[in-house]
Amino acid sequence: MKTTRNLSLAAGISLIAAMAFAHSGAMGVVKERMDGMTAMADAVKALAPMMQGTEPYDADAVRTGAATIASHAGEAMTSKFPEGSTDAPSEARPEIWQDWETFTGLAQQLEIFAEGLERAADNGVGGMPAQGGTMGGQGMMGGQGMMGGQGMMGGGAPMMSAEHIGQMPAGMAFAMVSQACTACHTRFRAEEK
Question: What is the CATH number of the domain that holds 168?
């Protein structure tokens, strides 16, 4: 279970680190959304070592980082993606506007997960659930989990609330945030050339 969390964290950090190099020359709404993504990336990078156990856990820092992510997610994120705003150096794929419902769902999901992480800050890092545990059949990214075919995007079980996530260990909530970022980037962010 710890390996799953570490792989999720590593994938999220790798995607986020690459963003920092791509933002030069951005203007207008593209710059605004890139700045928001950078703020979220910085928060994830600051929290990841605590979640991995390589730095001491700081609940106040978790709350602050989670609040930063939440403030740039949801409608704050989607409002920065007017249709056709793909001018370089934008990394937005046209699929965002072709599948707006999924994109907005992932943005809302990230906001809820981040709000849940903020609430979970006092719970400590904790552990990850066993596969098939509270997150659903094949994990969050799999066919039956929250991010997969039968989760929020697939019309299956309703998404968890921030209150419910806030009862979990912070490490688990952080993994959900990381996986939401990864899911959105995988579907809607252009590969770097």
Answer: 1.20.120.10
